[in-house]
């Protein structure tokens, strides 16, 4: 359900249990364990289940390695985005640039944004459950999960705002399987 993308290459994250979402450490990022979030949990067919594809933002504004500082600044100011996925020439996710890192580095005179974008990104699949996305974002202290397909192309992004918007829009929503 979730995959680390490290410098453009996918790497599964460790298996978790529905009771506790452990921190995903760097040492586990290369483990070959399947990340099956619903293994062993009985499904109640009467409960409402929501997946990332139903609340993610799409299409996603991305930048490539040729983006200029001015182009990035314009996106952060005009669109008021907090995260910009970085893609390679084949539109595969290779990193993410946060507005916080951008403004902090720009303020100290570092204008080479390629030196400070994050090259290790936790991603979700279209079939990832919203409940687990929220839990993993909370545990990992991240503000977004790019949603990728099997080729690591960004097809959407789920942010804290998307989750909050869903909770406000659908009072009483069940995020559990």
Number of domains: 1
Strand content: 15-25%
Main pleated-sheet profile: 3 strands, antiparallel
The largest beta-sheet arranges its strands as 2-1-6
CATH fold title:
CBS-domain
The CATH class label is Alpha Beta
Treating each run of at least 4 consecutive H or I residues as one helix, how many helices? 5
Write up this protein:
It contains five helices and eight strands. With 177 residues, the chain is an alpha+beta fold. The chain has a single domain, classed as Roll (CBS-domain). The strands form three sheets. A three-stranded antiparallel beta sheet has the order 2-1-6, with no helix packed on it. The longest helix is centred in the middle third of the chain and has 11 residues, at 69-79. The chain starts with a strand and ends in an 8-residue tail after the last helix. Residues 18-47 have low confidence and may be disordered.
SSE topology:
Elements (H helix, E strand, L loop, with lengths): L1 E5 L2 E4 L39 H4 L7 E2 L4 H11 L3 E5 L5 E6 H9 L12 E5 L5 H11 L3 E5 L5 E6 H10 L8
Parallel strand pairs: 3-4
Antiparallel strand pairs: 1-2, 1-6, 4-5, 7-8
Label this structure with key terms.
177 residues, alpha+beta, CBS-domain, 3-stranded antiparallel sheet, 8 strands, 25% helix, globular
In short:
With 177 residues, this protein is an alpha+beta fold. The protein is built from five helices and eight strands.
């Amino acid at each position: 359900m979730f995959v680390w993308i490290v410098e453009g290459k996918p790497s599964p994250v460790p298996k978790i249990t529905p009771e506790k979402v452990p921190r995903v450490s760097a040492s586990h990022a290369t483990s070959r364990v399947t990340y099956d979030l619903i293994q062993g949990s009985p499904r109640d067919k009467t409960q409402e289940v929501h997946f990332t594809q139903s609340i993610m933002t799409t299409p996603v504004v991305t930048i490539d390695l040729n983006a200029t500082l001015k182009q990035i600044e314009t996106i952060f100011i005009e669109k008021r985005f907090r995260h910009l996925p970085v893609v390679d020439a084949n539109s595969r996710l290779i990193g993410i640039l946060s507005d916080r890192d951008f403004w902090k580095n720009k303020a100290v005179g570092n204008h080479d944004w390629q030196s400070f974008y994050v090259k290790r990104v936790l991603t979700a699949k279209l079939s990832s459950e919203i409940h687990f996305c929220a839990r993993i974002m909370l545990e990992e202290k991240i503000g977004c999960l790019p949603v990728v397909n099997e080729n690591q192309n960004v097809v959407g992004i789920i942010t804290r705002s998307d989750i909050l918007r869903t909770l406000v829009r659908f009072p009483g929503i069940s995020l559990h399987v």
